[in-house]
Amino acid sequence: MGYVGLPTAAMIANRGYQVIGVDVDPIVVAAITRGETPLVEPDLDKLVRNAVSSGNLKAAFKPEPADVFIISVPTPFKNGNIPDLSYIETAVKTLAPVLSIGNLIIIESTSPVGTTEKIRDWLSKFRPDLSMPGKTAHQDVYIAHSPERVLPGRVLLELVENDRVIGGITPICAQKVASFFQQFVNGTCHVTDAQTAEFVKLAENAYRDTNIAFANELSLLCEELNINVWNMLELANRHPRVNILKPGPGVGGHCIAVDPWFLVASAPNLTPLIQAARSVNNQKPKTVI
To answer: A Gene Ontology molecular-function term (predicted)?
Structure first.
């Protein structure tokens, strides 16, 4: 129940749904049970308190039978910038025993391309009694990827107002998940296939990382050539088709420094620009301190 999972659970619970938030941390479970939030996010404390007091939100250590399962767990990388899917695999293994026919499984965790199909394959192994999408003409459950695209400090607003990209393993998977989100999302739900949805989130953050790296590299050049970078940017951005970002000490946040590596891991030989951007931004703090 992190910075995406808890706000999502609280928002849905405040719309009248019965929601169970699962976490392995006793401190988190205890806090939510008391109607408190362990996170700092505007208005989240009131939303959690209302959801718990209404009886629509409770916290638990294990999943229980439900109609919809939303997986929102960390996806860090291991040594060598290799994606670590162990948290997702553990979540899938934990929820598999309580799955039933007609369930929706939604993956919100930012994931390397192909992860949603891996989840389908893991579920097929854990629950051979259920027909999985894309394996046979008939399917008992519906699996889709819909990456979170929220900014800390604006999570509650953006969960509702942002557009959603929903990639199903099959078209009916995407349609059913879109129908679910449309009950509380004001933004447009764009349906596609699972791999495209996975790629979209990674491309968005690689794009931002690359643009930041360009600005940071220009700042290094300006320093070397004794040019005022702020004056240069002000003048360069007067061009009607130029909008160079402001340089800084690199990148921060939960996603931008991690997600580009998921694309690199998929095809190291085809991603020299993405890798160069990561190198520039990783080295930038050394020029600031």
So the answer is: oxidoreductase activity, acting on the CH-OH group of donors, NAD or NADP as acceptor
